[in-house]
Each structure stands twice: as structure tokens, then as C-alpha cells.
Design goal:
Length: 422
């Protein structure tokens, strides 16, 4: 495991070359994804049954796609009680955070002008919950609770079945705990298409959230516009800024934890301490690991902001001060006793975070993703008269004469009414 030294001014291109991220878009899978989407769009449940057998090895008739209420309740009843207690603690924290983060409608009124922004929930949200190598019941919490707190009328889940046609029972129990309305045993790109277009069995949704493999990610990109999406998710990553005060065993273990997510997951240590770099290397953290040695912690901050990591851990003497210097990160974990895994499960803020450097412009999933904002405007006659000259100048400057006339016709109507009154 090489220790990469960055000396002098930090070159963004050199930093990005070190981490060698894969692109979020994979054109090689596009033909297959488009074929699935078109088949589901045109053939609905029949295509879902065909692809479920082909990709998941499960023979499921369309009338059995939906997980029954009895099956949901049985999974919840049979769940380990210590686990139920843990997800309730997690749910409470997530719910409190979402309630605190809710945005309210805005109203401004002055001199006959009323302008508002109404915040209203989506009607129906579709959550994709992966099965795969590690089923993630915690992802149900992180997606369903913000939707419910936002006031979404109906929350549906699609998740892939095993070859026996069953869905992971902890996913089902989490769905019960969070108040998910309906669960369907359908996965992959076909599930995304079903939620985007609707089938006889699976309802069309307004927005699709939740992570998945490259086929799911590409399907989300393809259906965008038919339904909203949260983000395009790449491999998970953690970047750790650490100085000589950091515990090397903490750093190495957090790198190992990150490697559990995915063979492509990245763990990056950026430090100004040669001794820490060597000690962490000697502990042999597994996976896709990079150790970058810089001259100062300020340089480490620069490197981190260039990378814009999904998870950023800060283990420094004054971790709070370093955190305040950061511009680009999905989530920041401050201090040696705040590993990224605390955000995965229990802290409250969402664990669905922008990956692949998109933290430069994107945000974690939140209650805001399940509402929409509508502008509302009302002008009195007097307010329209006051605004008329400015609108006329602006419209005619842009060559939009009929825009200007939309004001003029109203002014003439008002003048005519005044003349008639006289």
C-alpha cells in the first residue's frame, strides 16, 4: 500500500487522478436498461414477471407481487426484539431531525401585492430498497421516515425477492415500523420502470428514491422526467482527515468498515503526519485504500474539498475548527468518537448521501426531497398599474411584445371602466 505524497501547491487534477473514481454513467448497460424500461412500459406486469424470473430466479405471478399485510405483520412479529428496539431508537432520531428540518410556506404582502411559496407534499413516493449482498433495512428508515414526515400520502417500496420469492424479513419489519403503505417483491431496473410508469399492480409514483446497483442507477437516470429521482449513486466512500493526535486503529477500522459496503468503495486517509500514515498502513486496512500525505492540515482540507467525499471524518486536535473550513462533503463526522457508521444507523441525519464528488452541488436525502414548492402571486389593480412601466420595458427589450400587451390590455380596461363610471 503506497503512501502518496503531495508537496507544494495542490493540483486538483492530480488529486482526482489519485482516487480514480468510476463514472456514474455506464453506457455499456444502457441498451439492456432501455430494453427493460420499454418492456415494462408497454407490457406492464407480464414484463415484470418475466424479468423477475430471469434476473432474480423467482417465479412470481403478478397477483403475488405485493407483499400481503399478513406477511408484513408476521415479519414484524417475528423480528428480534433487540433489533426492533434499536430501529425504534434510530427512527426516533431520524424523525426528530426531519421534523426540525421541515420548511414552511412563505408569505409576503405589501401595497396590494401578495407573493407566496406553498410547500406541499408529493402525492406518492416510491422507495427502492436493495436486496443483494447485504439487505439494508436501515435504508427503509432513511427513505420512508422523511417521506412520512413530509406528509406524502402513499409510500410504496420495491425490493428484490430471493429465489424463493420471499423478501428479507427485516426489510418488511422496517416497512411496518415506518408506516410504509405497500411493499412489492420486484427489483432491478424493472422495479424503477414500474414505479415510473405504473402497471396494473404497481402504482405510478411522483418520485423514486433509494440506492441500487448500476442497472438501477441507470434506470433512474433514464426515467427522470417521467418521475423525479433523488440522485445517481456511485460507490460509497469515506475520507478521513487526521493529524498526529489520531488513533491509527480508529482510522484503519473505519477504512475496513467502508470496504464492507462494496468492492468498489473507497477509503482515503489524508494526513500531515508521516508517523500516522505509516502506522495506519501497517494495520493493513482492506479494500480500495489510499493514503495521502500532505504538508499541513490546511492542505488536507484543500484535498478533501477537491474530492468532495460522501463521508468525511475529521480526527484532529481541533476537529471543530477543521470542520468549519470544509465546503464540500455529504456528511461530516467530527472527532475520534464519531465514526461514519454512527451516521449510517442512529444519529438522525440521512445516510443517503451524494457520492462521486457530487457533494460539490448536491445534498443528502431529506424531508425536502418529498415536498414541492409552488409560487403564488396576486396583484391588485393599483399594484399592476405601479408595475406596468417596468414590465413594458423589460418585455419589449426581450422582443416579447405580446407580453407587454398582456399588461396594456388590462390598463386600457381599467381606463375604460373609469371613463364609464364618469
Amino acid at each position: 500500500m503506497e503512501i502518496i505524497e503531495l508537496v507544494g501547491s495542490i493540483d486538483p487534477a492530480a488529486v482526482l487522478k489519485i482516487i480514480e473514481r468510476l463514472p456514474l454513467v455506464d453506457d455499456a448497460v444502457l441498451p439492456a436498461v432501455r430494453e427493460v424500461i420499454e418492456a415494462v412500459r408497454t407490457s406492464g406486469d407480464a414484463a415484470l414477471a418475466e424479468y423477475t424470473q430471469k434476473f432474480d430466479g423467482a417465479v412470481i405471478a403478478p397477483d403475488a407481487f405485493e407483499v400481503s399485510r399478513d406477511e408484513l405483520e408476521a415479519a414484524h412479529k417475528n423480528a428480534d426484539q433487540a433489533w426492533i428496539t434499536a430501529i425504534r431508537h434510530s427512527s426516533d432520531n431520524i424523525r426528530r431531525f426531519c421534523e426540525a428540518a421541515k420548511v414552511e410556506s412563505v408569505r409576503l404582502e405589501n401595497d396590494g401585492i401578495l407573493v407566496e411559496e406553498w410547500v406541499t407534499p408529493l402525492d406518492r413516493a416510491g422507495l427502492y430498497i436493495p436486496g443483494g449482498r447485504f439487505p439494508y433495512p436501515s435504508t427503509v428508515l432513511m427513505n420512508a421516515i422523511p417521506a412520512k414526515v413530509a406528509g406524502v400520502r402513499e409510500v410504496v417500496v420495491c425490493t428484490p425477492p430471493g429465489k424463493n420469492g420471499k423478501v428479507n424479513e427485516n426489510i418488511l419489519a422496517s416497512a411496518v415500523e415506518t408506516g410504509v403503505d405497500r411493499v412489492f417483491r420486484v427489483g432491478g431496473a424493472q422495479a424503477i420502470a414500474a414505479m415510473a410508469y405504473g402497471t396494473t399492480t404497481i402504482p405510478r409514483v411522483d418520485k423514486i428514491t433509494g440506492p441500487g446497483n448500476i442497472y438501477v442507477t441507470m434506470a433512474k437516470r433514464e426515467i427522470f422526467g417521467q418521475a423525479g429521482i433523488d440522485m445517481l449513486a456511485g460507490p460509497s466512500e469515506v475520507l478521513i482527515i487526521a493529524d498526529a493526535t489520531a488513533r491509527p486503529e480508529f482510522v484503519a477500522q473505519d477504512m475496513r468498515a467502508q470496504a464492507e459496503h462494496d468492492p468498489l468503495a473507497q477509503s482515503i486517509l489524508v494526513t500531515d503526519s508521516p508517523n500516522l500514515a505509516e502506522r495506519v498502513r501497517s494495520l493493513k486496512p482492506q479494500g480500495n485504500v489510499k493514503i495521502i500525505l500532505v504538508e499541513t492540515i490546511d492542505d488536507a482540507v484543500t484535498v478533501s474539498d477537491i474530492i468532495a467525499p460522501e463521508h468525511l471524518e475529521i480526527m484532529c486536535d481541533d476537529a471543530d475548527a477543521v470542520a468549519r473550513m470544509i465546503t464540500n462533503a455529504g456528511a461530516i463526522f467530527i472527532g475520534s468518537f464519531t465514526p461514519a457508521v454512527i451516521g449510517d444507523y442512529i444519529a438522525g441525519p440521512n445516510h443517503t448521501l451524494p457520492t462521486n464528488g457530487t457533494a460539490r452541488f448536491a445534498s443528502p436525502l431529506s424531508v425536502h426531497d418529498f415536498v414541492k414548492r409552488t409560487s403564488v402571486i396576486r396583484y391588485s389593480e393599483e399594484a399592476l398599474r405601479a408595475a406596468a412601466t417596468d414590465v413594458d420595458v423589460l418585455a419589449k427589450t426581450e422582443g416579447l411584445v405580446e407580453h407587454a400587451q398582456a399588461i396594456e390590455v388590462r390598463l386600457k380596461s381599467l381606463e375604460h371602466r373609469v371613463d364609464s363610471d364618469e
